[in-house]
Design a protein that fits this description.
Layout (H helix, E strand, L loop, with lengths): L1 H21 L5 H37 L1 H12 L14 H4 L1
Length: 96
């Protein structure tokens, strides 16, 4: 009789431990999900780090190279130098 109770108690403890291992806090599923989130965040951080480095190089170029500033002004602000002639060509399809 005592042996049956001990066996039942050990089985109950085993089931509780298994439940926590698979479904409770800190379970395998949660650890896998967290690892996946960490990998996604590291990927996102790497992309942002690369973008920041590119922007930093662009800022440094704008600070030191006047040709870069002029090119940017021509593209974004429509800069025209003195003595240059500006021609605007409009496609008929775009104007409709």
């Amino acid at each position: 009789m005592r042996r049956n109770w001990l066996l039942f108690l050990l089985l109950a403890v085993l089931l509780i431990v298994q439940y926590r291992l698979w479904f409770g806090p800190g379970s395998w599923e949660e650890i896998t999900r967290l690892r996946r989130q960490i990998a996604e965040q590291e990927h996102s951080n790497a992309e942002l780090r690369e973008r920041n480095e590119r922007l930093s190089r662009e800022v440094q170029s704008l600070k030191t190279d006047l040709a870069t500033v002029e090119e940017r002004a021509r593209q974004e602000l429509g800069l025209i130098r003195e003595g240059e002639t500006f021609y605007l060509v409009v496609d008929e399809e775009e104007s409709k």
